[in-house]
Design brief:
208 residues, alpha/beta, Rossmann fold, 6 helices, globular
Length: 208
Amino acid sequence: MFRLVACIVALAALVSCTAPTKDVTDEVLDLGDFVLGHNIVVAPDIQKGPLSREADTEAFIASMKNAIDARLGASRYDGTRLVHFGVNINGYALAQKGVPLLLQPKSAIILTVTAWDDRAGAKFNEEAKEIFVLETFTGSSLFASSGFSMTAEEQMANLTYNAARQIEKWMHENRACLVDEVSKEDLENCWKDNRNEEMRRQLEEQRN
């Protein structure tokens, strides 16, 4: 995992998108009968990437929990299939002030997620879901590091907002298994592709 974290900064320059708002106003997705249960976030072995600001681990954990609650809580999804999350923040990079146009370090986070089926008392996914996200580029950070325009807390909020959105999309992809009656065929097709092969491929290219 350290080698993954070590490549975050190099990968960060490859992606751009639009800025999130503070509140979650995105359209609600079809998550079957999903309702959020326990939202547990830990970071026992969190690693800081190169060229990164320091981040308070407890603040990062709180930010991730808040982002999951805001996006996946009962105010948006109030079904009957109780799902618990176990999230492990593995590594991060919070951009510092770089050289505009030449060196533009971007913030990123790596985490793994396990979804637990309350009804069965077991994991939905035996292999943890790998999630790698970059900060959303704001107008100012398109031309310079977000370290110029954002505090570490704002960068963490940006990253965890995007990470929670990826978890929501993951639930949407597996919505067929988040209902009361799940067919054998759906059960066989759910919770696959938990390894982020594209991320691993890009990281390997950066190392070579």
